[in-house]
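Note to self: keep these together.
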Amino acid sequence: MDKSAIIEFSNTVRDKLNAEIQNRAANYGIFPQEIHTVEEHGDSVVINGKVFNAHIKHQRSQLVKQVKDKGYEQLMDEVTYTWFNRLIALKFMEMNGCLPDQIRVFTSTDPKKPEPDLLTNALNLDFLNLDRDFILDLKAENQDEELYKHLILKLCNYLNDTMPFLFEKIEDYTELLFPDKLLHTGSVLQDLNSKIPDEDWHEVEIIGWIYQDYIAPKKDKVFADLKKNIKISKENIPAVTQLFTPHWIVRYLVENSLGRLWMLNRPESRLVDRMEYYIEPEKPETDFLKINSPEELKICDPACGSGHMLVYAFDLLYAIYEEEGYLPSEIPELILTHNLFGIEIDRRAGELAGFALTMKARGKDRHFFRKQVQPNICMLENVAFEEGELNAYIDFIGTFSPMTIELLYSSLPRQITLVLLSVRLQRMYRPSGTFWNRKTFPETYPFFQLIRKS
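Structure:
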């Protein structure tokens, strides 16, 4: 894999996309320092002297609200990576024949034709349920850019059924900010087709490497800011806490955890022949988790990033299922349903982890998309309370008696009960400063000791 080409690709496409998306925002009167007003005229609106169809009014209102809530720069970054992820996914699927009718989104089967097959065959894309008259009108008016944009948006919405975590329905402000002039010389489209060698697109690990290089400048900037005593904001935590594990370390970790457990349960297994970094036990072991079938194997990466660890675990699991005599057509679904789990705080990386696993499954079963199976990637989100909400919550929990909490302890998960007790303690300390002692609260004092120790 050409790592230098991937670095150049990520930097070029990211910067071009970001600039184009900011240009699109400016087109609708939205700038870093100001937002222009909209003049309404029946079925049209006027912004900066330009006339638009009135149907964009709601989308623009959404966009303005997001800018005010998140800030201009953060929102532009979010929309940039949203379209970056989608375009990368479409490129990978195109290069690996995973799209319906094996349609080419960015290239042509005819090397003499500069326009992509998606555009050339617009009238034959039955799976998209297109408005034929609308397509013919755009073609008659030579609006190729508008038609191409329309087709990509339709394709993304079509893929929502298969991968909703990556291809969310595009009916909001992100549609307004879709990159313009993709068919022009020097566009992002040309970079998608030329920067990375075609053969590298056949390795699913390229998704992780592309993302690593995508976030590298932000990571460098945040660390530079730290030297100036500028704290890391919550929006930048995902970028600065990601460390991409080299493949040999991934193999070592997976082979000596998943692989080791399977070998302990199946000493005669030939899985060992494919595990280059596996270290065999020096002495026979008897104290280990007993596994009766491959479905009982559970692998969770609590900081899965773009899925490098899970992707290799998929390969070992596939070999295990094969060895146990499962049908090749059922194995991918079983792995994604029963075996692999990931947790991630960075939505962008989590989306790509889900995509990488889906592509691994599709690579083994070309009918996999029909099964509507979703990878088990949990993307953690911030939970925030307004000050009044939090105080009301504390006041409510604070009314629980020690006996109530002790009763809950026997019927609720231990962690939840400890949270209740923690809040109860805050309620006790805040108004009166009462100390939670054994004499006053004999029933719940042991739980208090647990919290204090933790």
